[in-house]
Amino acid sequence: MDKDRVIGSAKVVKGKAKVAIGKAIGDAKLQAEGEADKVEGKAQNAVGGIKDTIRKD
């Protein structure tokens, strides 16, 4: 498994936590940061998946 997949997954989890905390305390900025982290993490995870696929060939 590529390190980008691990880091990307961690960013998604971090983003979900920020969104949940932001909703709980009513902090729109924290929610937005969390959503951005989730998107960034998903993209990084996808890049890692592509790298894994390339290595398998």
Automatic annotation (TrEMBL):
InterPro entries: CsbD, YjbJ_sf. Gene3D superfamilies: YjbJ (1.10.1470.10). Pfam families: CsbD. Residues 4-56 form the CsbD-like domain. Coiled coil: none annotated. Belongs to the UPF0337 (CsbD) family. This is CsbD family protein. The lineage of its organism: Bacteria, Pseudomonadati, Pseudomonadota, Alphaproteobacteria, Rhodobacterales.
